[in-house]
Amino acid sequence: MKDAFFILAIFCQFISFPISGQTTWTKTSLQEQYPVSNILSLGKDLMVSTMGGGIYKSINNGDNWSEIKSGLSKSVIFSLINNSKTLYAAAYGDGIYKSVNEGESWEFISSTPDPYIYSLAVSGKNLIAGTWSGIYYSQDGLEWIKAEIKGDKKHSIAFTFRTHKNKIYAGSGRYIFVSEDHGISWRSQEAFTVFDIQAFFENKDTLLAGSSGDGILASVDGELWQKKLPNKSETELKNVTSLVSDSTGLLVASANTNILNQGDKMVYGKSDLRAKVVHYHKGKYYAGTYGGGLWRLDTNKKISELEVRNSLELFTALYPNPAFKNSVLEYSFNQAVQIKIDIIHPEGKIYRQLNLGMQGAGQYQLKISDLNLGSGIYYLRLQADQELKVLRLVIIN
Question: Which domains does the chain have, with CATH numbers?
């Protein structure tokens, strides 16, 4: 049996921002048990996709939500995009759905040759899909062609896309790929990281990339990338899953800390809201969580005026990376906690449960080989007393 090759990407975040000791994040009525994968603004409305619960829509800033079922046969939605009032949704393991009436109803249009789709984008006349086995493009959404990736630096999975200055960027493992012909061909860029690129954001003229282990990377020209970290604390910001800004600052969802960016100054703080994606809509901030629904910050304050507070610290690492079957998941706590780990299939089924009992403050290891997992994507849900973290594990044999 071949040695397994493991890549671990951590997609979790705890954020809480009390303002003047009174205003905090509040939970909306969306009581979704599955991870929130995307949040979209549709004029005055909001739309949310989940990894197991389908798609929801709100017409009143998240006060009430309606589940959209018309035409959707699958509920694990990894990507949701809006292109000139045409919506596209990627159902993992199934294919692509389209809506032309603001998500009220959907129709299945096709599946790529590889139906395990992580991300979608539109560039020019091309619909682009990032899958387990590579990037595909289509002009009509029906027939798909595998894109050419030039050079020897290749990775099969495109986790995220972003259009910037007439180019489209793809975040993958270790590298950033760029296309200047609307996704037909791609060339690699050195991102100076060994981790996955899982989020992009345009902050004025700067393109930012969030990585799963090296924090934020920044590029002014879209070619040369540098780490955007304060010199004194490069270890505090690691896994960045989402970025959003208002006129005064940048709010970042990260695996182990929060960052409020005020110009060149970064303010650090621990957190206790478990979020995967953050979004700004009509003066309010939204956080989509891992199994905790959707949260909203009801305030007129700017990001630069927010404060943060501390909570339980949980740090994780997988090494060596690239890893083989002798790799280990390492985790540590700053206080004694009850530990339980669930291994979950992307469709929500619990594959295995590990009840590890009370563990004191310190550092622990779990051998990946002991999990006996085959090729595929899994979610590792760590429960430490009342706190949760969800880690995404991709195994390629």
Answer: 13-305 (2.130.10.10), 314-396 (2.60.40.3080)
